Amino acid sequence: MNLANNLESSAFHFPDRPAVRNGDTEISYRQLNDRTNRVATGLIKLGIRPGDRIGLCAPNSIDWIAFYFAVIKTGAVAITLPSLLRGGELNPLLKHSQPRFLFTTDDKLDDLQNLRSSGRVEKTVCPGGDLTLQQVMDMGTSSFKALDRDRLDTAAVLYTGGTTGTPKGAMLSHEYINLSSHNIAFCEHSSEADRALCFLPFNHVFGQVHIMNATMLSCGCVEILPHYDMDQALSLMSAGRVTKIFAVPTIYARLLTVDRLKEKLGRVRYCFSAASSMAGEIVRQWKEQTDLTIYESYGMTETMPVTWNHYYQHVVGSVGTAVPGVEIQIRDAEGHQVSTGQEGEICIRSRSVMRGYLDNPEATKNAFWEDVWFRSGDVGVFDDNQYLYIVDRIKDMIITGGENVYPREVEEVIYTRPEVLECAVVGLPDKIWGERVTAFVVPRPGREIVSADLNIFLKERLSPFKVPKQYVTVEEMPKSAAGKILKRELREQFSVS
What we know:
Blueprint: H1 5-13, E1 18-22, E2 25-28, H2 29-45, E3 53-56, H3 62-73, E4 77-80, H4 87-97, E5 101-103, H5 113-117, E6 123-125, H6 133-139, E7 154-160, E8 168-173, H7 174-187, E9 195-198, H8 205-217, E10 221-224, H9 230-238, E11 244-247, H10 249-255, H11 261-264, E12 270-273, H12 280-290, E13 294-300, E14 303-308, E15 321-322, E16 326-331, E17 344-350, E18 356-357, H13 361-366, E19 368-369, E20 373-382, E21 388-393, E22 398-400, E23 403-405, H14 407-414, E24 420-430, E25 434-443, H15 451-459, E26 470-473, H16 487-494
Helix pairs in contact: 1-2, 2-3, 2-6, 7-8
């Protein structure tokens, strides 16, 4: 097995179909596979062997995709790193992952000087580096078949932990990414006619596996935006160049403020949200304005997708039922399975669970019950139809005056207010309560947040201990590169007892 076999299959069946479009540049599956082969054979001539680690730290592009599949074709491991990181943030990840080569951009070269001098990165591939991508391609040939690998061999390493501040390298096998891509394509009813808009970074599991790999598998076209720009995204949709959009909840909330939204979506047939929990009110408003459903699944870097909320029985507020090949249990703090309707930690067993964390056996051991059930760190509950509901992150739970408060429950109510664009509820240190429930709110354009009015509204709908003791209006939430609200940064910025 080799994950890159999916690209080869798409190039065989649909050689002239568009594979990737970036701005005015579009290449077919035949052209992408040829380019990938030239990079792969060039890397082999440079001494790359199966199992070697090769880094990618660059923005989304056609070349990023070609280099990624080239690395995997050679049997090497793609270490995919956030392109926005600078020296102080990037170097620890490079020291940990120790890639031999690094595909990057010229603006990273100064940051890499210390690593280069210590021999940790042998060669950089970028216009001002040791080799350009064109030079690597010139060494190779367009005829090459992906090397066969064991299904459990690592294909890619993705760093996780952006919301906790402790990155860990999740090792994703060829089987993990292949099975995940098949489940995604099946659940989305994907075909070669689809054009998937991608502005999420390819180093993130959402961009890399859910959008890019699943689209390559189903022979569709990836429409790249270097980063999210609402005007550019709407322009592509209005022009009919997009059939599927993938975004995080905050982006859907902002799109709901656009006039004549339904008209501007053009040929969009499928809308998907991930990275963080979607408030039910946003799903309802989207359906009212566009006649389209926002579909959700549940997953994370270490395992995805775990569940899917269906075409045929979509349940607002749920993340759906288990996808094929995935088992889910809800367990208590001691690791015992609980009954349907009881809350507990979501635990997953599947072939699409990571192998473990790169060079971190202790973190790997702590991530599993009985070495096979992955511990998600999320609190969930099943209904009688086996639809899963996410209650919240275990680490996000607030203990105030001895009572447990799950932020998501409070956020769901706040999102029903028309003046609220985004919100995040966190616990801040408090001498009396231990933690005080604090709501950070971004107002909709032209609207104002009146704390007293919001407080009265919440008191009518929540238990007294769940009602925030403090409301903070902010212009913008701190977010990860994937668009997830970073509650950790809110806590650090406002934690004054």
